[in-house]
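Box 3.1 A note on notation
Throughout this textbook, protein chains are presented in two layers. The first layer is the amino acid sequence; the second is a token string describing backbone geometry. Keep the layers aligned when reading.
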Amino acid sequence: MTRAILLHDAHIITLGQADRVIDRGYVLIEDDRIAAVGAMTDLPVKRAYAEVIDCSGRLVMPGLVNAHTHTPMTLFRGLAEGVSLFTMDGWYNTIRTVELVMTADMVPAAVEVACAEMIRTGTTTYADQYFYMDQVIPVARRSGMRAALAYGVVELGDPAARERELMRLDGFLEEMGNDATGRLQGWVGPHAFFVDNSPELMERERQLAEKYQTGLHIHLSTNSEEDDHCQQHFGTSAVAQMQQMGMLQRRLIAAHSITIPPADWPVLAASPFSAVVCPSAGMRAGAAAAPVVGMRAAGINVALGTDNVCNNNDYDLFQEMRTLAKLASFREQRPGALTAREALEMATAGGAKALGLDDQIGDLTPGKQADLIVLDKGGIGWTPSISNNPFTALVYSVNGLQVSEVMVGGAWLLRGRKWTTLDYARAAHALNGHAERLLALRSRN
């Protein structure tokens, strides 16, 4: 029997092909799908519903997509202050030193806190990249979120590490292919091409992506390291070398994408490539602003991510949209260089496209998955509504703490600002204990 949920009398932003803003409307959900969206005057004949929810004074919109993060690194929040993790030296001498002493049992609580913070602030789907995936998967599954989980591969020129990580990656992808929830994907996660993943490893990773028909999740162009290396060794840019090696044939999401030469943009626009910008992390690292406006104009899909919470330090994508839009105007030296509407699309449809889920999520179109969030318009920042249109309010005026409900696939992950799938208090308490033990281990090594 079909389970129907009706959200009524809501202010609705659909995005997508319908592209409607409905002042007083309804969303009808049947099982895991959106069945209908419309004005209250067009509500179908009364029928039986499992739930009827009055959304007066609230806004309903698509769930947000965090297209780049590292959830286990919640364990390291606060450990990289004053250091740029966008350089090999900064990353290796701060985060890598604690990664070498962390233990697997520290990971689940860190992931649970990360997922809880994302849910609480309106994120319904995320792209993760890290190791210890055997510890990540159960928590991601229990959270109820959608996730593209990429096993992070770091080689650093060690042939033994290469073979060990490839074996683990193959096993991970095999396991993820059997995920029964339908919400988790397994991806290949080279940490950074040419920087700590050799061409030999890259080719093997490409072969595994082909074998399992999945994508690659990398870091690219936080500075000129990749291009400098490729010009020295191959006489080409990093993108040109990636194309020659066939790395652009599979779906590829590239975190940061700050210094990609504009001459390479047409190649990327013609490939299943998405740039994922993480503006707060970049600003805190002292990095340049990604050329979001230029890349979008060139036809490149651009999505939004938070990066890890050492660089950022929070998971609120509403705050990230605000930073993104302001930084774009600052970089281009003109107001409104990136509109509020464009920022919102990057955080929804852009992320969905990056993960190959644009036929399933990213907007409130009937037939798509019922992934949506509800915001309480009784909070600060919404008025005056006559001039503060909903896109401007969402990007520049409010934050994720005004999210009151979160749904993924027709199931509630947050109701009345309370988590339904995760125990944040328990996980936060455990995380504090793990962090104390981690710092003690680091001090002894």
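The chain has two domains: 4-62+362-419, 64-354. The mean pLDDT is 95.
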